[in-house]
Amino acid sequence: MRRCRGPIDAGGRNPVGQGETDTPAARAGAPADGPAQARRRRAVVAALMLAMALAALDSTIVSTAVPQIVGDLGGFSVFSWLFSGYLLAVTVTLPVYGKLSDTSGRKPVLVAGAVLFLAGSLLCAAAWNMAALIAFRVVQGLGGGALQGTVQTLAADLYPLKERPKIQARLSTVWATSAVAGPALGGLLAAYADWRWIFLINLPIGALALWLIVRHLHEPERVARRERPRIDWAGALAVFACGGVLLTALVQGGVAWAWLSAPSLSLFGTGLALVAVVVLVERRAAEPIIPGWVWRRRTIAAVNLALGALGLLMVAPTVFLPTYAQAVLGLAPVAAGFVLSVWTLSWPVSAALSQHVYRRIGFRDTAMLGIGVAALLLLAFPFLPYPGEPWQPALLMLLLGGALGLFQLPLIIGVQSTVGWEERGTATASVLFCRQSGQTLGAALFGAVANAVLAARLGGAGDLDSVTRALDSGHADGHLSRAVAAAVHAVYLGAAGAAALAFVVLLVLAPRRFPVLENQGS
Question: Measuring CA to CA, which residue among 176, 170, 149 is closest to residue 45?
């Protein structure tokens, strides 16, 4: 097999026990990790954690500063694109950056993504109106896609299979902490400084991460090959256009326009046509952005579908639980956020401990155990007493975080361990892309379900926006509270169905034992 690179570590050599270059000769010639190599790897890990924090913070930090941003720039009718634009750019670029990291190396992709992200942050801080801010958020997202996918891929490159849960648990902890701290930090900066500092704060953090990567991450020289790797720019453009159109249709459908309106039908029609274009372009490409093996290999295809279902079900707690806590339990926004945030305590702990389970029963069965428990917990939510006590949904969320940590991490590590270095970026990006797409689909689907239930309960005059206005004005009466409870219960039932779907996908499609490369562990 022809290779352009081998696996890397922070010291610039091929680590024994990982990747396809683990030959007897390599073992004989590779020295053990010395103090210098250990320091370099710690520096690179610190950089990866900082990069992950940037990507995670910018998904949430803007939310609490919207009133100040709108008050300064205007554009209330389109402010939702501050989030949607960033999400779209991150999602559709994941497969592009994954392939580029396999053909050109992780370091240049990560450096370029960090620079683009920081440039977008600086531009956001200088935005003069809402249209400019939305455009610059898209630029941020273009860099954020490189950060998310490449950080996860590098984590697998730096550590052999038996040590990967440690780094993945650290990254999960960073993500969870950032998700909780983001809204609070955004609110504080908007209230006591200026909303522009929400973006300026990225600059020193990102600059430190960039400096650590440039200084301490060394990739081996490219092995000689007959020709330079060809980048599938046509495929990248087609994937970007297709993903952007379809995700826009899902994000804005039922919000900016009705599902069966002309704009919605036009976008979905255009998206389906672009799907055909993507298939045609990628089948002819020498090195396609989305290679066919991603879906032909049972293991990767099953994990893609299962993590798509994970993205779908995660919408239920992240989007709807805070509204439930305020309208049904009568909690203040901060307390409502705490009910949700408790799952960020158990998720990374469970992920770190999952290695002790999958080493005994395998990646697939560990993930099935986690998602099976998650399905039961989601199914239990509608049976909570009305109105109930705050500790009851909080306990379910704590247990749900533990179950999902047991589900997600073994699948990601398992997929990364079934491929060599030259395919790992693409494989990692594919599972992250499916998870992100699942979240977008879930937001549209469950939003429609919740609105339908609210309209039925409130006589056709209710939707999520009317609930939000009632909560802001303090006029949420008992009738509205029961309607919100019914809507959220319906969403949780749908989420339980998504968890059951993930369980079935793993049971039917995934092999019981993942085909882990022999030199990566058992």
Answer: 170
CA 79 – CA 448 distance, rounded (Å): 20
168 and 271 share one domain:
no
Question: Quick one: three-class SS letters along 34-62?
Answer: CHHHHHHHHHHHHHHHHHHHHHHHHHHCC
Query: What DSSP state is assigned to residue 8?
Result: -
pLDDT in tens, 244-286: 888 788 777 776 777 788 888 999 999 899 989 988 888 888 7
**Residue 287, φ and ψ in degrees, nearest 5:** -130, 80
Residues 280 and 394 grouped into a single domain = no
Is residue 26 one of the residues assigned to a domain?
Answer: no
- The 8-class DSSP code of residue 381 comes to G
Q: Which residue stretches of 61-105 are H helix?
A: 66-73, 81-104
What's the whole-number average pLDDT of the chain?
81
Q: What is the DSSP letter of 146?
A: H
Nearest to 272 by CA among 299, 245, 294: 245
Same domain for 252 and 216?
no
Q: Considering Cα of 453, then 271, then 257, then 183, what sign does the dihedral take?
A: positive
Cα dihedral sign, 67-444-439-287: negative
Report whether pLDDT(6) > 60.
Answer: no
How many angstroms separate the CA atoms of 89 and 80, rounded? Answer: 14
Q: Which amino acid is at 2?
A: R
Q: Which amino acid is at 315?
A: V
Q: What is the pTM of this model?
A: 0.81
503 burial type by CB count under 10 A (0-12 exposed, 13-18 middle, 19+ buried): buried
- Domains identified in the chain, total number: 3
> Could you tell me if 354 and 409 are in contact, meaning their C-beta atoms sit under 8 angstroms apart?
yes
Tell me how far apart the alpha carbons of residues 309 and 501 are, in angstroms, rounded to a whole number: 7
d(CA 98, CA 105): 10
* 426 contacts 102 by C-beta, under 8 angstroms: yes
- The domain that holds 433 is classified in CATH as 1.20.1250.20
> Are residues 325 and 242 part of one domain?
no
Nearest Cα to Cα of residue 491 among 288, 264, 226, 312:
312
* Number of other residues whose CB lies within 10 A of the CB of residue 74: 13
> For residues 232 and 97, what is the distance between their CA atoms, to the nearest angstrom?
11
- Look up the domain containing 251 and give its range: 233-285
Residue 174 CB partners (closer than 8 Å, separation 6+): 49, 52, 53, 56
DSSP assignment letter at 417: T
Distance CA 200, CA 197 (A): 5
Instruction: For 438-497, write each residue's pLDDT tens digit.
Output: 888 888 888 888 888 887 887 765 555 666 665 555 555 677 788 888 989 999 999 999
Q: What is the DSSP string of 419-456?
A: S-HHHHHHHHHHHHHHHHHHHHHHHHHHHHHHHHHHHH
Cα 355–chain centre separation: 21
Q: Do 248 and 195 sit in the same domain of this protein? A: no
